[in-house]
Amino acid sequence: MTTPKNIQVSDATLEITQIRGLVGAKQNQKATLRSLGLKRIGHTVTRSADAVTAGMVNTVQHLIKVEETK
Questions:
Q1: Helix axes 51-59, 27-36, angle to 10 degrees
Q2: Cβ-based burial of 58 (10 A; exposed 0-12, middle 13-18, buried ≥19)
Q3: Is 16 exposed, middle or buried (0-12, 13-18, 19+ CB in 10 A)?
């Protein structure tokens, strides 16, 4: 599953990978990626699909790839 339009709040676990760089990105997008724990292209973190994470993912959906894990 690649980046859907909107991540919904659920009990799922999300595997989030940064696929694009931050050059030319807005300051709030840079801060959002840092808050997610992403540091460089290819870096992957695992987060729960709570309301905060869903909002952050939807803010930077063009810079990341999201997959649901079981």
A1: 140
A2: middle
A3: buried
CA quadruple 24, 18, 49, 28: dihedral, nearest 10:
-20
Amino acid in the structure at residue 6 = N
- Taking only the tens place, the pLDDT of each residue in 32-45 is 999 999 999 999 99
Q: Please state the φ and ψ torsions of residue 32, each to the nearest 5 degrees.
A: -65, -45
- Number of helical H runs and strand E runs in the chain: 2, 3
| Bridge partners, residue 47, by sequence | 14
**Encoded tokens for 25:** 């990105």
For residue 44, how many other CB atoms are within 10 A of its CB?
13
